[in-house]
Amino acid sequence: MKINWFYIRMLVLVVLTLGLVAFTHKRNANRKVKEVQINFEAGANLFVTAESVDKLLIQNGKPIEGQYKEILDLKDLEDKLDAHAMIADADVYMTLDGVVGATVKQRKPLARVQTQTPFYIDEEGKTMPLSSNYSARVPLVTGVSQEQVKEVYPLLKYLQEDKVLATQVVGISRFKNGDYSLTLRVLDYDVVIGKIEQLSSKFSNYKAFYQKAIKDNSLEVYKNVDLRFKGQVVGTKK
């Protein structure tokens, strides 16, 4: 009987490959986590520290460093980080040489709301607790409750995206009738914007008024600048 050496060689190759894979898998499973590396997106770790993140990276009731790689649940570790009040998103991964890395994106506040229990409103329009590690330099909002966060959020987002207004506005006040006014960093007048609607038109009118007042050297004579009236700006002098 003629021996088919081709099939024999292929069979041997398959067996060797399977053996190598099994050996590599077993060897890799027996490796332990030798190091934990924590990276903050954009290099900022203002509201949550690396130490705080490291304390969340636990499994089976103990730190993951020194534990076998095979028993780690990376999804569970990610969920723990994502649940942190100061973290917007986290990615946990493992390298072949036993290093567990965590890339953390912190939440970014747009404003601080002054209530009995103060809180931030973040860039996604969600409430965010204050941090004991860092106090953000953002506009202070008064007269707004947690139920009115969705109402004020479009204004906060608009101010954040406007380079001029973002540097000028330091305070936002809501009145009982639902109108809003802005307090400016340097200028000694309030800007009344009324309801949070037609913001683009209102602030375009305000910028035109502002540029003219600069030319006239008259900014200091106003105590209020009212944007509630369509197509015009009403300035009240001191």
Characteristics:
elongated; 238 residues; 6 helices; single chain; alpha/beta; 9-stranded mixed sheet; 3-stranded mixed sheet
Write down how many β-strands occur, each being a DSSP E stretch of 2 or more residues.
14
Report the end-to-end length measured between terminal Cα atoms: 113 Å
List the helices and strands in order: HEHEEHEEEEEEHHEEEHEE
Largest sheet: 9 strands, mixed
List the helices and strands and how they pair.
Elements: H1 5-29, E1 35-40, H2 50-56, E2 58-59, E3 62-63, H3 74-82, E4 87-94, E5 99-106, E6 109-114, E7 119-122, E8 127-128, E9 140-142, H4 149-161, H5 163-168, E10 169-174, E11 180-184, E12 190-194, H6 199-216, E13 222-226, E14 234-237
Parallel strand pairs: 1-5, 6-9, 9-10, 12-13
Antiparallel strand pairs: 2-3, 4-5, 6-7, 7-8, 10-11, 11-12, 13-14
Could you characterize what this model shows?
The protein is an alpha/beta fold. The protein has six helices and 14 strands.
Short note summarizing the structure:
By secondary structure, this protein is of the alpha/beta class.
